[in-house]
Amino acid sequence: MSENLTSRSLRALNWSYLATIVNAVMQTGFTAVLARLLNPEAYGLIAMANLVLSFGSYFAHMGLGSALIQKDKLTTEDTRAAFTASLLLGLVFSGLAYALAPLGLYVFDQPAVIPVIQVLGLSFLLSGLSTTATSLLRRTLDFRSLALIETASYIIGYGLVGVVLAWLKFDVWSLVIANLCQASLTALLAYHCHRHSVLPSFDWKTHKKLLSFGGRVSVIGFFEFIGFNVDTFIIARFWGAQSLGIYSRSYAIVNLPIQYFAVTFSKVLFPSFSQVQKEIPRLRGAYYSGSMLIAVVVMPISFGIVPAARELVLVLLGDQWMSGIIILQILAVMVPFSMGTVLPAIVCESLGRLNDKFLLQIAFVGLVLALVMLAYPDGIDAIAGAVLIANILRFIAYQMLMGKFIAISLKDILNAHVPGFKASVAVVAGITVVHWVLLDLHPALLLLAEIFTGGIIFLLSVLLNPQRLLKEVILQTIARLNDGTHPNWLNGRVLNWYYTRILAG
């Protein structure tokens, strides 16, 4: 990877993570407010509707965004074809959602979910309008614009609209309208930031090239969706909206900061990796560094949630969600394994090894389906445990694929996760001690003490006293950020101090 491309990628990550931090903080706040204004059943109905609509979303998009990013040379005709196809597919699937929504009654036995599906189906059309512009922004690594778009659309379109409508007693419809407002604002802002031709194109050769790659991405994404949502479907079918609401909110808490981190990483690295798909040694080095950075952030946060789960549920959701504590703890342990597959999945797509990724995902779907079906009679806690086991096995399988595709050794993969594991042990130990010593404290104060303790331990063990392997990765990252003059983060002052006093010392 050229230094210029690497620097651009890292600067893109800076903007993406700025948006990630803002969105994670705002989403935590909006979640806490909405959980007190709405009951679990409202979230359960939204989860059911999203489950149904997600079945169509992969084919409504047909991977056209990924095809635009991955294509070596992009023409105006490609852009026109992608926009035309996205818009037409959005119209078709919005119509199908409205017409077929009553069939959801046979799946969930919940009549209230039908109108929710019909109205939320408009999101197909709205996402079709935004797919081309957002993909072109990603292709050019313009993550500054994307960061502003995501933040503004979430805070204004979803958060403020959702809270106001929930306060006005719109119940589940506050969430429905908020989702549509967010999608509408995203489409408007994306086109404003990247104007592209909206003239229709019906050149079949151009469409065929884009759909050939994009269609395979969609099929794989569809099976990924099934694998990720088998638990949601089983709970919705056999345990009802109340249990699904509790399960989905517990999953949301553990995923708030962590999934934002991993998804942001993937958005930047897919276009970057696609440009160096023939340079395996550099790709292998980037994979090693990326795996270590993901692990050292994700593992301490997710494992640290386990001893603080009670306080998180009480503070963020309230007393009516207490049955979600054990689910939250199980899913917190699962997250590092789930997020640990993000980077290998990006490598598979950037190398065009979609068949291998497809076969692995098929196996994962079969595995998670079998385990969840065995576990569901024992309750939603057991279902969460089954999902944990399936994700551990999928993580192992993906690492084996990376050994085959980019010749990275098992030793290097293990070494990449050592700093994250050591930091996790220290963070969990510190939070556990604080939890038991201050157990009689008010939950909000106790949670603040746990967050403060975990943050200090993380800072000391990861940033101020990094392990040798992590120090090497941080040094390489800083060297790439430094274009030969000054590091471009905070005018170089903080980065220079950290480099000279901590890393070089």
Description:
The protein is mainly α and about 500 residues long. The protein has a domain at about 1-210. About 85% of the residues lie in helices and about 0% in strands. The chain contains 21 helices and no strands. The protein has helices spanning about 5-35, 40-60, 65-70, 75-100, 105-110, 115-120, 120-140, 145-165, 170-195, 205-240, 240-275, 280-305, 310-315, 325-340, 340-350, 355-375, 380-405, 410-435, 445-465, 470-480, 495-505. α3 crosses α10 (about 205-240), α7 (about 120-140) runs parallel beside α9 (about 170-195) and α11 runs antiparallel to α12 (about 280-305). The protein is globular and about 65 Å long. The model is unreliable at about 1-5 and about 485-490 (pLDDT under 50).
What is the H-and-E element order? HHHHHHHHHHHHHHHHHHHHH
Chain-averaged pLDDT: 78
Which percent range fits the helix content? over 70%
Radius of gyration: 23 Å
Question: In terms of structural class, how would the helical and strand content be classed?
Answer: mainly alpha
Record field, number of beta strands: 0
What is the makeup of the main sheet? none
Low-confidence stretches: 1-7, 483-491
Beta-strand level of the residues, as a percent range?
Answer: under 5%
Task: Throw out a few tags for this protein.
single chain; mainly alpha; 21 helices; disordered N terminus
